[in-house]
Amino acid sequence: MGTLTEGIAALLRRPITDADRDRAALHLLDWIGCAVAGAASETGAVFRRQVARQPAGAARVILGAAHTARDAAFANGAFGNVLEMDDVHREAILHPGPVVIPAALALAVERGADGPALLDAIIRGYDAEIRIGRAMGHAHYRQFHPTASCGPFGAAAAAASLLDLDEARTVWALGNAGTQTGGVWQCRAEPVMTKQLHTARAAVMGLEAALLAADGLTGPREILEGALGIFAGMAPDAKPDRVLAGPDAPWLVHETSFKPWPACRHCHATIDAALVLRDWVAGREIAAVEVATYADAVAFCDRAQPESVIQSKFSLQHAVAVTLRDGPPPLEAFAPACFTDAGLAALRDRVTLVRDAGFTAAYPARYGSAVTVTLADGETRRADIPDALGDPENPLPVADIIDKARRLMRSAGVADDVIERVIATTLALPGGAPAATLDTILP
Fold it and tell me: What is the pLDDT of residues 250-274, one digit of tens each?
């Protein structure tokens, strides 16, 4: 029957349609918006300074025509994750975009690939990363960041596609990508920038593994299920059957969710529920707020008084408070000013978190939450959201995905005419435009 990575390599050869490429182009555009804004951030500046030939004051996405593919994948791998607005796959509990796209885009630009080849690489990279991620099990997620541990597989599959590796060399690339994986979660417990190093390194690991495989470097075939492999060492409750499940199913890029809000995905259904109540609450005194959601959301996002931007993005209390008070949360809703806002601090203190058995049982197939608000006069109202906005059951309209990219680029100071060229060029890639055309217009 072969090994699991041999099975993945075979599945990556199934047909890709125009509709698949159109979907991948939307994910590429979504990533561009996140990366342009991330490049302009304090964290982005650190990674820009680390890349050779990058001007110290530049705030731009870095492409392979002006840098090596490795440098481009490294910097771009960090940029797209900074704002916590990158796409996400629910069952795998990981973000494929900020790892797969930087590796694919850097190599496509360096090698002169066309748009369909770039998009095909993205589709294959998403599939490999998600297939492995959904098999890793919950015990792995408690200790490891799956985007870091599974991302190298996605980057390797994307690069293997662009390099036109045969199945044997694709297996070597996957094996050598997997042997480098890691990414423990301690960075989540401290107000640090390490999470972006996870995505940057994952993109480079996968890219390098594919380049080495192309040159003949062999890699382990049983990197997942072997006695000394990843499942044995990092995933005690792994579900190996999930790797190759659904061989005839649509490409998994179609199951990947878009994130409308600049916060951890575990906060999104709570934000959506708060928005349902926002008009009813407006101008009235709130006595108490209860957030009932799945256990992982509470485990990851229980921070009553966050002390940094990243902590505020991982705070259910802050997410629900700022949304109830101010409405749909923009980037500024998680800025440092919110930590010194006495009104917000007081409202966060009135929030109680509850691990809800129903939402927990549905997770990770569904990310749900309910918010109950009690007013000072005793009136109470509850809003239930079974699926966060942007999930397949509650999709974000295409126009909103495009507008999200537009708003993010505008937040980084990009001129409107440049933004519209980026959008038009990206959405035209399925028609055959060279991937390198993005290098002439990306800010």
Answer: 999 999 999 999 999 999 999 999 9
Show the tokens assigned to 15: 């047909």
Residue 11 DSSP SS3: helix
Dihedral sign from CA coordinates of 183, 184, 187, 188 = positive
Residue appearing with tokens 């001007």:
55
Q: Which ranges of 51-145 does DSSP label H, i.e. alpha helix?
A: 69-79, 97-111, 115-133, 138-143
Is the preceding omega at residue 364 within 30 degrees of 0, hence cis? yes
CA gap 357, 351 in Å, rounded: 19
Tokens of 275: 């928005």
Element of type H or E holding 122: helix 115-133
Residue 65: band (very low, low, confident or very high) from pLDDT cuts 50, 70, 90: low
Q: Which residue has the tokens 């217009």?
A: 441
On the question of pLDDT at 1 being above 80, the answer is no
Long-range Cβ contacts of 230-234 (<8 Å, 24+ apart) = 230/149, 230/178, 230/181, 231/135, 231/136, 234/136, 234/140, 234/143, 234/144, 234/149, 234/181
What SS3 class is residue 204? helix
Beta bridge partners of residue 385, listed in sequence order? 369
Record the pTM.
0.93
User: H or E stretch including 275?
Assistant: helix 268-281
DSSP state of 25: H
157 alpha-carbon distance from chain centroid: 17
Round to whole Å and give the CA distance between 441 and 419: 9
Q: What one-character-per-residue DSSP string does 412-432 give?
A: TT--HHHHHHHHHHHHHGGGT
Show Cβ contacts of residue 14 under 8 Å, excluding neighbours closer than 6 positions. Answer: 247
Residue 225 near residue 242, CB atoms below 8 Å = no
